[in-house]
Amino acid sequence: MATFKQVPPMSANFGQACYQCFAEQTPEKQLSRCGACKRIGYCSTACQKKNWKEHKTLCKALGELETTGSGMSLHFYNLSDPTAGDSINTMELTEFTNMSIHADIYFVERALGRPLDMIERNLFAWEPRCAACGINERMLRIRAREQGQGSSTQLQKCGDCLSTFFCSPRHWALVKKTHNTVPAAVNYNGMTLCQINQLIREDIRVANLLREGKAQQGGVSSPDFGPLLPWAPNRTMEGWKSLLETDWEKEFLGGIAEELPFPPGTPMKPFLRAASDNLTLPMTILYALERLYGGDLAFTREEVLVIHVIGAADLEVMNAMMFEEILHRLPEVKRVEILLCGPDMGKIGGSEKPGGVALSMETCPECTEKDRRRVQIMSSSLYHDYVAKAGASFKAPALAVAFNSGASEVETDSWKATMKVLVEKKIPTVFTAFNRGEAEKEAALLKEAGAELVPALGPCRNPWGSMLFKVEPASLEGFYNSNGWFAGGFK
């Protein structure tokens, strides 16, 4: 059985859950901090011993950072003053936080003689910091030693969400002005930052329960290798139903409560949020089709509906079964063809061939009985190369979609070439992003390529983005979610 390195959740990076087994700290069961680096905690000696082999080199480097390497972060801190007035200067706070994190990572990577991996970087990106001034506990300890102060070297936290920290009563007073009274800038159903933090913590607990369940069944128990809750409704709808005036709870809450084997009375909304992380793929496709084609519902009656997923990665491969929801919501469609196109498909044999490799995927008993099929084609080509190789035989899909493309952040020149082809070939297209910033940057790239964006498809929130919100690394008040924003749609 394959095993994979599990990614510690935010609570473990906060030092509020065991860094080995992820068991959450409770009043009855406190964690023991690592005595050397003081950065992470464990629920037992056994867990600490299990984790020591992986942790010991980083632990030593963290110790060196505190004794000799945090001077640059403190220098940045002394230069900044985001709390000079009666409110917090969030721009200055963000700038200091990013500089501090980069300086600390730079020092530790030099001490280790290698780049940090993603799990190690999370210890810096999700390190508890005062939400008003950005100071962390390591800096508090250094400052106390340098100034000979006997004051506390520990951050305090909000008693409700446990995820917002402060270093002094004055700074908590500044934070509290908006923390649990003003809707967060991310605009999630009018919830405050404190409420979203509580929701995220609840989702982490559910993820731990699902992970434990998979482990007990002998399955791969990492959330990074396979969806934790690969659920979709076991039904085929009688006809197309518009997605413009409905939402996740109306469409799926009743079904998940009925079909999953939980005791009566179990709160199901957290499990729906977990399932939405996978279902966002087909639902985003269907919503984009409806928005792009307007009153023309021909796509709901196509015998073969072709969808091209651009820049496809492991996420789409592991969630391949979710695309059957397209068949289940379009009962007149006989076959759905999903092209997964991108260099990450190179690990799949035959994907390097012109046109890729096609696989006939398993469907539910009802679809199988009615000869309704789902075909998955995988190509390791860049999409603009895929189109060029096809030449005159290329046929535009009903929709090309780039999920969470990151086009403005990585491989931008390659994405620009793809955008140019999409516009020139007049291929119906939609791009999604994790957050508003990425969406707005990618919208600018699409417009630069000549795309005339449909206003309802960005840059704007995606009502069918994942319900699972996550805290932005290196951010004190930012959140993101898979397919959370439409960057732009055009045809």
UniProtKB/TrEMBL annotation:
Keywords: Metal-binding, Zinc, Zinc-finger
Pfam families: MSS51_C, zf-MYND
Start and end residues of each MYND-type domain: 18-59
Top-level division of the source organism's lineage: Eukaryota
Molecular function in Gene Ontology: zinc ion binding
This protein's record includes keyword Zinc-finger: yes
PANTHER family according to UniProt: GH20023P (PTHR28069)
This protein's name: MYND-type domain-containing protein
Organism: Ephemerocybe angulata
